[in-house]
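#data-curation
PF: Archiving a pair of folding outputs for the training set. Convention for this channel: one message per protein, sequence first, structure tokens after, nothing in between. First:
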Amino acid sequence: MSESQAWDAVDAYFTDRLAPDDEITAAALRESDAAGLPPISVTANQGKLLQLLAEIQGARSILEIGTLGGYSTIWLARALPADGRLVSLEYDPLHAEVATRNIARAGLDKLVEVRVGAALESLPLLADENPPPFDLVFIDADKANNASYVEWALRLTSAGSLIVLDNVVRGGRVVDADNDAQDVLGTRAAIELIGTHPRLSGTAIQTVGTKGYDGFALARVLA
């Protein structure tokens, strides 16, 4: 068995026993695939982790930057109370349309609002509404703007809030000094920001699995 085959097998083992897709989440993946969306949603195990993090936080409000087909949105929204709120920002109108259908099928449309447009344009508009601080922010959008997204997450949260930044390893490219791709530079900038900002305490974890070699960063907002 090759290394990648072992990753896949272990992922399947854990998913089958701990985080199996149900009819709703499986349908969200099928609909996303049928609409031609890229197959870059979080895995079921990762979705369950997001749900657990939101539950541990006791989250009542969640901000998601990068909706895609709404798969991660569904996992996150399932952690919310009946009067909770999730705002998800999506650049691509087609992605947002598919996500909206998937979220409605999941019966979560009263909790979730998908806003269409470039996140760096949507975030100032959201801030202008002066919403209550978000308890959790999940960032999974264009990686070049990761540092800006973390900065906005700080503005829209308060002490105790959690920021989750996905895809920070980039197959190990994040530590390749000769790699100046925009996604790598954006990820490095975000990690540097988390590591040096006085209001953030964070760490990052490497992961392997069906999506290959990657990882995520966690940051807690301090007083």
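PF: Second:
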Amino acid sequence: MLDRLTQKIGQEGLSGWHLITQEMVDRYAALSGDGEGEWIHLDPERAAREANYGGTIVPGFFQVSHLIRLTGEAMRTLLPFDANHALNYGFDRLRFVRPMPVGARFRARVRILEATSKPGESFLLKEAVLLELEDGTVTLAAEWLVFLGPRALAA
């Protein structure tokens, strides 16, 4: 299996296009407290008047929460896997590069950087992950670690 993974190093996968609506940001703020009381995230009229982004922007950690779905989509274009046996191992690096306007379409661009063998026929993948807008602007850049258990990869 390690050979199969190392053959994928450097290859890139893309998710489909997604967008985050103002209603989604409002619900996220109410559930998480992230952005609560911040007009830059929750008041489109004021944000349009007072900020340089044309309106509200998506909270950074709400962008991070979309990595699960989007990175999964992108990775499945490279390597079929069972998400029940793939565990979030954390980030080596996570940066919010540019603001993401609410309502902008974005996708994930994922490149496999490393594959390391672990005990029990398991593996640790390091992925370079970008969230990018339709115009190519990157809003988030990360190096994400994913632990693949022995049954994560289809035979």
